[in-house]
Amino acid sequence: MAMEEYLLILKFTGFLILVALLAYFMIRFGLRRLQPSTGRGYIKVLQKVPLDVKGDRLLVLVRIEERILLLGSAQGNITVLQDFPAEALSLANGNPVQPETENLFSRLLAACRERVKSEKEGAGL
What we know:
Blueprint: H1 2-34, E1 43-50, E2 58-64, E3 67-74, E4 77-84, H2 104-123
Antiparallel strand pairs: 1-2, 2-3, 3-4
């Protein structure tokens, strides 16, 4: 009787180890397929900037092929704030900007501010 109990405990322990391993591999490798793409295709999120402590309001910089969009996200709504052309990807000296650089977001915002400022001056405001 004692031997049967040990075998039962051994089988149960082996089964628990097998379930734990299956759960580990499913979480490790299986969930990647269920998550949305993070930039492997045509759309790539370049940078996210939270505007409040909770992170409910965000500025999101997205690259879609050769276009860059500045999106605002608040309370479940997404708004296109600015659409940057392909030349916004280049520096003044003509070198292409790598999307991973930290200064891309600030450079694009500065370009947007300059454009708005020049439009106001042109309109006589």
